[in-house]
Every structure is written in C-alpha cells, then in structure tokens.
Write a structure and sequence with these properties.
The complex is a heterodimer of chains A (234) and B (340). Chain A has 234 residues and is α/β, with parallel strands linked by helices. Helices cover 25% and strands 33% of the residues of chain A. The termini of chain A are far apart. Chain B has a 3-stranded antiparallel beta sheet, with helices on one face. Classes of the chains: A alpha/beta (234), B mainly alpha (340). Bound molecules: S-adenosylmethionine (SAM).
Chain lengths: 234, 340
C-alpha cells in the first residue's frame, strides 16, 4: 500500500490497482460519517468519496486546490459537515468557518465541531454576510455549495466582505437549483456571466469543469476577484 | 466609526488603524450570548477588508493566534448551541405534534382495519369499527366472555363466527390493547395541541379553532410565517396534498385549503362558501398577527366575523342563477376537467 500527496493535505492511497482519495485524520480513531479509516506508514487517513463531496470531485477533476495547511476557509452551505470534515483535515494549522442556515442540520454539524479543534460553526444565512461579519475574519478561500438560485450573488457578497486580495473562490453550481427546465450548459453559462460581470465584484475564472460522473449537472469552478475590485483589501 | 466584533466594540481612524477598543469580558458564555444577540448581529460591522484577528491581538484581547482560534471556536460552538436551543420553540412543538398525529392516524387506521378483519373470523356480526372495536376486543377477547347484561350478548351467543382458541384470543387481545393505546396517545396529543395553541395563540384558536389553528401553523412553518401570509394564501394553505390527488386522480381542483374544514365554511351552502372562506381567511390572518405581537385575546374579532357573515348571508340568500362564470364550487370542478 502506498500513499501520495496530490495537493496539500490531500492524498491518494494506492492499493494494488485501486486508488482512493483521502485526507489525513486530524482526530485519529474517529470516523465522521461512516467513511473508512486506513492506516498507511503509521498515519491514519479518512477515505473521501467524491460522489458525496463536490470538493472531492473537484480534486479528482484535477482542479488545483488552493488550500494549504494553514489556510483560513469560509465554507458556505456546510450541511452536516461531510466535506467540512475533510477541509478540517486539510488545514490542521488553519481554521474553517462553517456557515449553515438550517437549524436541524446545524444540530449535526455541531456534533462534528465538538470533536474537532478547527471548525467554527455559524448558524446564519449566507446571503447576509454582514450578519456574521463580526465573527469571520479575512479568509484565503471561500468554498460554497449552497444549491440556491441566488448562489452567484451569495458568492459575490461574501467575497467582497471576507476574501483576501489573493484569495480564491471555489464554487459548486447545481444547475437544477437555478432552473429546473433549462439545459445545464445554458444555466452554467449564465451563472458564469453573472460572476464575471454582475454584483460589482468581477470574478476572474481560472478553471471550470462539470463534475460528472461524480455529480450530475454540477459545475465546479475556481475564481479570483479582479485586482481593481480588491484595492481596499489586505 | 464604531463597529462591533465578537470580542468588543472598536473604532478605526481615517487610515483604517484601530483607534479604540472597548473589549467584552473574556467570559466564554457571555461572549457566546453577545455573538448571537440580535442587537449585536444587526449592529454596525467592521468595514470591508478589516483584519479582525490582527485587531484582537493588537487590542490585547488574545495573546496569540492559537488563543484566537481556540477561543473563537469555543465561543462559536456555544453560540450555535444556544441558537439551537432557542429555536426549539412552541412552533416546533406544534409542528411535531401535528405530524405525530397524522402518523398515528395512518398507522391506527391500518391496524384497526386489520383488527376488524381478524376479529371478524370469530364474531362477524359485531359491527364496531375503530376505537370502539379495539376497546371491545381488548375488554372481552372471546365473545363467550360477554356478560348477559351487555346489549351484544344475544348477537354473541348466536354468532356464526368460529370458536377462538386461548392462544388466538391472547394474541388478538394484545393486538387490540396496542391499538387502544395508540388511540389514547392520539387523544392526548390532540388535548395537548388544544392547550398549547389556545394559550399561545388565543386569537387564532378563537377564530380557526385550536386544532385547525395548529394545522395552519404547522403547514405555514411557524406562527410568524402564518401571520405574514396574505389572506389569499391562507385560503389555500394545505391544498398541496389535494393538488397531488387532483393531478393523480382527477379529484376536484384544490382551490380549497384546509380552512375549508372550518365549520363556518363546511356547513355553509355552496354558493356562500367562497365568500365566507375569504372572510374567515382574512380574520385568521389578522388573528395570528395579533397573537404574534400581543398574544392577548381580543374578543371583538369573533364579533366582527359574525357580523361579516351575517352580511354575506343576507346578500346571498339564494343560489345564483346559472351563469357562465359563477364563483361557486361547481365551476371549480368543471375547470379541472378541462385540464385533466
Ligand atoms: C448541497 S448541501 C451542501 C453539502 C456539503 N457541502 C457537503 O458536501 O457536505 C447545501 C446546504 O446548504 C445549505 N444552504 C442553502 N442555502 C443557504 C444559505 N442561504 N445560507 C446558509 N446555508 C444554506 C442547505 O441547508 C444545505 O445544508
């Protein structure tokens, strides 16, 4: 069995001719949502199923993942924390601000936060970042997976408030949550246009791929704010 | 410019450097309460691009980055827990109770039908159903246990039903006892709902009736949402289920929400129903708004509604003559067939 680090804190475990995506378990011995724990060369890894995680799918789709061990990450749409737990593994010296607006889901997320040293749960509407601007600092990465019709706007508002000058936005766009009948391609095109031109943020998109076969009708993208829109930033 | 952060109220000068720090007490529970305090949440926030972490160190609130992380994480968790426990509100209790009631109804109907079929082997002449049947079987078991002074004695003695063995009797009795228990639970949930809605939303309870009121709150999601619905929406709340049925089975069009179970509407002649429904829905909207803001019973609401109904009844004493576009329930169902 061998292991390679394909991006900071993200690994593939190779066993015979199968490859498994994984992160190094920040809390050894604890499986978060039933994922397999694998020990390789004295370290424990948590296997990461790309079908259950848009970020996981983005890794397998060969996106450059702009998250480092000490990154500060604002995660919008944390749900019960499946993906958040892996981000928490990836940033052992950083911090994850996990925003979720459903109280029922937050109940589960808090169980996760209790067991991990680097997640701050925030029960709030991601469309109103001013309401948590007294909690969240400037971050290196915003990861957003909210599956909402106004997701481009949510991304812009949060980037404006919290994203560092050289920070990255990582976005998962679900076509059907925006338009249930239009073709996904058309929806994606329109969302990209909005990100580039609307909401006076002006994102510059570096990479985008559809997340098939891991997630149908989802687009993943990585973007930065255009320099002229980040002059008052640190 | 003053603004609030999770660790205190700060001010910055024109250059953006921190000029004032009015720090909060470093008590974790207090900080958590502040974090989600409505005033704090809605207060002026740091300007775009402000470095919270650096300011916390600069103001001497924390000594290191590690302390910042550790403290904020702990405070964040405490605050989220506080928000969750606060959200376990009356509305949620009502919603869960209403859903439990519906779940029990589904189950208890199926079990009662089973019991009727099953007990029918032994006493087919018994024409009891639902709760009375369950009570009967759990009390007597075999029909040979019915005492001569019971009105069913004759029927039992001459029944064409099969003899029941001890083992079968024990089994079917235990089954019936469980059904009875479900009926009892159902009744206590109803009593609970009546109590909680009447005490928390007295005006809604007065106008809609406590149980219908509970269902409206449950379908709307909360009393607050119900209060903010326009009354035209109140009229169709709960029509979704009917809509489904309508699409599947060509049942009548669902312009009737659950408020059509209101006795004032249900018992009205069909040509007055639409108008009465509108009046009742408007009053329900109004009642829930009063409940949301004052929670005190205003008896004039019922009086006004009664007066309004009198006017409607007086103005529409007879069914309208057949015109193409009448507002009655009949035209509604015709429209449907065209779609279906
Ligand atoms: C597709 S799920 C996210 C799954 C998660 N990223 C994962 O991989 O484990 C979307 C989540 O976003 C939340 N959400 C949707 N709109 C939101 C908003 N405006 N603010 C905060 N959370 C939101 C939903 O409650 C839901 O839990």
């Amino acid at each position: 069995m061998g292991v390679t680090e394909i991006s900071s804190g993200i690994f593939t475990i190779i066993k015979g001719d199968t490859k498994q995506l994984a992160t190094k378990n920040l809390v050894p011995g604890v499986s978060v949502y039933g994922e397999k724990l694998v020990e390789v060369e004295g370290d424990e890894y948590r296997s990461w199923d790309a079908r259950r995680s848009k970020l996981g799918a983005m890794v397998l789709k060969k996106f450059d993942i702009p998250i480092a061990a000490d990154s500060k990450v604002l995660y919008l749409g944390a749900a019960s924390g499946t993906t958040v737990s892996h981000v928490s593994d990836i940033v052992p010296e950083g911090i994850v601000y996990a925003v979720e607006f459903s109280t029922r889901t937050m109940r589960d997320l808090i169980q996760l936060c209790d067991k991990r040293p680097n997640i701050v749960p925030i029960l709030a509407d991601a469309a109103k970042p001013r309401l948590y601007a007294h909690i969240v600092e400037m971050v290196d990465v915003i990861f957003q997976d909210v599956a909402q019709p106004n997701q481009a706007e949510i991304a812009a508002l949060n980037a404006k408030q919290f994203l560092k000058k050289n920070g990255f936005l990582m976005l998962a766009i679900k076509a059907r949550s925006i338009d249930t009948v239009a073709s996904p391609k058309k929806v994606f095109k329109e969302e990209v246009r909005k990100l580039e031109l609307d909401f006076d943020v002006g994102f510059e998109i570096f990479k985008m791929y559809e997340l098939t076969p891991y997630h149908e009708d989802h687009l993943g993208l990585v973007a930065k704010m255009r320099p002229e829109n980040r002059n008052n930033k640190i | 410019m003053n603004f609030v952060t999770w660790f205190g109220v700060l001010a910055v000068d024109e250059k953006g450097t921190v000029s004032e720090c009015d720090l909060f007490q470093k008590d974790r529970d207090e900080l958590a309460k502040q974090l989600v305090n409505t005033e704090v949440v809605n207060a002026n926030k740091p300007p775009l691009g402000f470095d919270l972490r650096a300011a916390a160190v600069e103001c001497g609130f924390v000594g290191s980055n590690e302390e910042y992380d550790e403290l904020l994480r702990d405070v964040g968790i405490r605050a989220a827990k506080e928000q969750i426990s606060r959200s376990g509100t009356t509305d949620m209790r009502i919603i869960q109770s209403v859903e439990a009631l519906d779940d029990i109804d589904g189950v208890v109907n199926a079990l009662s039908e089973r019991l009727a079929e099953w007990y029918g082997i032994y006493f087919p002449e018994l024409d009891l159903t639902t709760e009375p049947l369950a009570r009967f079987v759990s009390k007597y078991g075999s029909r040979s246990n019915i005492s001569p002074d019971d009105s069913l004695y004759e029927k039992a003695a001459t029944s064409m039903g099969a003899e029941i063995s001890d083992a079968d009797e024990e089994l079917i009795k235990a089954f019936a006892v469980n059904v009875c228990n479900l009926y009892e639970t159902r009744n206590s949930i109803e009593a609970y709902l009546i109590q909680i809605v009447t005490s928390n939303s007295p005006n809604l309870a007065a106008i809609a009736g406590a149980l219908l009121g509970a269902r409206l709150i449950s379908l709307a999601g909360s009393l607050e949402r119900l209060a903010y619905f326009p009354s035209s929406t109140v009229q169709v709340i709960g029509a979704n289920k009917a809509l489904f049925k309508h699409l599947r089975a060509r049942a009548p069009s669902p312009k009737h929400g659950i408020i059509f179970n209101h006795p004032l509407i249900k018992n009205a002649p069909w040509w007055q129903r639409g108008k009465i429904a509108r009046a009742v829905a408007a009053k329900i909207s109004f009642a829930s708004r009063i409940d949301l803001y004052s929670g005190k019973l205003d008896e004039s609401l019922e009086v006004e509604l009664a007066r309004k109904l009198e006017v409607i009844r007086a103005a529409n004493p007879k069914p309208p003559k057949k015109v193409k576009k009448s507002g009655g329930a009949k035209s509604g169902s015709k429209k449907v067939r065209r779609h279906g």
